[in-house]
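Entry for the shared binder. Reason: the reviewer on the internal report wants the predicted structure included alongside the sequence.
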Amino acid sequence: MLSGLHHVGHVTTEYDRTIRFYRDALDGTVGETTTVGGAVNVAFVEWSSFRVEVVARDERGTYLDELLDELLDVSPYHLAVIVSDIEEAIASLANAGYPMFDDQPVEGLGPYVRAFVEPDSTPGLPIELVELAETDTP
């Protein structure tokens, strides 16, 4: 079901400081950036074999509020794993007793669709399922 790690997510209140740390101290390259609803900033910081998604909510009022609240109740970090068939992965996890936050795939903050397992249902870090668009690479 899993074919790799897409990214490690890091939800922070210090967007600029976090970006500077990953870029300047750890020699990462800032890749794709976006803002959701003028309230949530997102950047992917990349290295040769992995990337970190930095997410910072400046204010409430976007469709991400409930998800970010639930993630932060568990951890400021999450693992995004690559699956070849996200609908099959959702069904498999649900059948194994792990409820989904997203019952159906939704557009991700990059060129992919994603679905989160209910953050408080997994041991350890929250899990995001990612099915890549053809233009995205891990």
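Summary line for the report: The mean pLDDT is 94.
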